[in-house]
């Protein structure tokens, strides 16, 4: 079948027409039989644009309208995208098995980054379908959220998480938490370990995305703590002559930081922020200012250009 004929079938299926997909059997399929070859080297680089497009389209076809409950349905085996999903899922299981043989977490990161390209076209198709209100319970999409956070592609992880939260797509079965809890906890943890590795705009995005979703107080406290420290860093780097200087100056950043730290302490008395609070209050006194935040610590808008750059 030619690429043009395949595109005609895709358009017909998307229009709701019955399509015979049997003629596509000769097209390259990812599946258990091809697992070894797909895991050797950079698999995605050997795939043609046709094959990548095929994955993306079949991912979209696999999606179903999300119910009024807001929870995506399980994939229908009669769906034209189901065969592709099962085949890719088998490849993913083999990749996970190989990764489990590597004990070093850091050593797994570059491998996950490389292997993730095998699934990128599928994920992009799922995200596009999600924008149209269609989705399915998809372990591939959920696993790619986990991987993206592991190798530090936070903008990509946020795109996936936004899709999962909006369409009620659950985390892979081995995770016993919600998408919002997992996202908030992982990003906050990364930010507290490596403050320079997670930008303020990413932390603010995570906070906004998860604000209305239930999670344990300790998890939420950790995110407030990470935001508080990011605000302190912004205060330290504040340049009143900069074009993107925020109103209120350094005091505004410190005031916002203090609010976040106090909120973290409210949620978790063992959050480890008491010394942070003392330090921030001392800095505010040195500026001749009285702390003006309440314990909720309303967020200050990040007016820098870094968030825009990272989302592109």
Q: State the end-to-end CA separation.
A: 36 Å
Q: How many separate helices?
A: 14
Percentage of residues assigned to helices: 55-70%
Largest sheet: 2 strands, antiparallel
Instruction: Determine the mean pLDDT.
Output: 81
Overall, the morphology is: elongated
Which strand order does the major sheet show? Answer: 1-2
Cα-atom radius of gyration: 23 Å
The low-confidence runs, each spanning 5 or more residues with pLDDT under 50, are 24-45, 299-312
Structural class by secondary-structure content: mainly alpha
Protein model, in words:
This protein has 312 residues and is mostly helical. The chain is 59% helix and 1% strand. The protein folds into two domains: 3-19 and 29-151, no CATH class; 179-312, no CATH class. The chain has helices at 3-14, 35-38, 49-62, 82-100, 105-115, 117-131, 139-150, 154-167, 179-193, 200-210, 217-236, 249-267, 274-286, 306-311, and strands at residues 64-65, 134-135. It is elongated.
């Amino acid at each position: 079948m030619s690429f043009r004929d395949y595109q005609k079938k895709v358009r017909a299926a998307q229009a709701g027409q019955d399509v015979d997909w049997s003629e596509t059997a000769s097209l390259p399929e990812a599946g258990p039989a091809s697992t070894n070859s797909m895991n050797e080297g950079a698999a995605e680089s050997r795939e043609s644009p046709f094959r990548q497009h095929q994955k993306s389209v079949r991912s979209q076809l696999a999606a179903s309208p999300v119910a009024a409950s807001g929870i995506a349905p399980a994939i229908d085996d009669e769906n034209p995208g189901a065969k592709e999903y099962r085949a890719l899922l088998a490849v993913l299981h083999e990749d996970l098995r190989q990764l489990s043989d590597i004990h070093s977490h850091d050593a797994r990161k570059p491998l996950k980054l490389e292997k993730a390209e095998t699934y990128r076209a599928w994920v992009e198709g799922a995200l596009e379908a999600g924008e149209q209100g269609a989705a399915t319970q998809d372990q591939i999409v959920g696993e790619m959220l986990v991987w993206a956070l592991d190798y530090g592609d936070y903008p990509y992880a946020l795109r996936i998480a936004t899709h999962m939260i909006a369409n009620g797509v659950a985390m892979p079965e081995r995770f016993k938490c919600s998408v919002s809890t997992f996202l908030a906890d992982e990003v906050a943890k990364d930010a507290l370990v490596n403050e320079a590795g997670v930008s303020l705009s990413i932390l603010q995005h995570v906070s906004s995305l998860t604000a209305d979703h239930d999670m344990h107080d300790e998890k939420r406290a950790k995110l407030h703590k990470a935001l508080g420290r990011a605000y302190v860093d912004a205060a330290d780097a504040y340049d009143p002559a900069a074009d993107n200087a925020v109103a209120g100056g350094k005091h505004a950043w410190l005031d916002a930081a203090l609010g976040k730290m106090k909120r973290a302490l409210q949620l978790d008395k063992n959050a480890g922020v008491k010394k942070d609070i003392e330090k921030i209050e001392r800095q505010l006194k040195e500026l001749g200012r009285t702390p003006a935040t309440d314990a909720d610590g309303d967020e200050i808008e990040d007016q820098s250009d870094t968030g825009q750059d990272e989302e592109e």
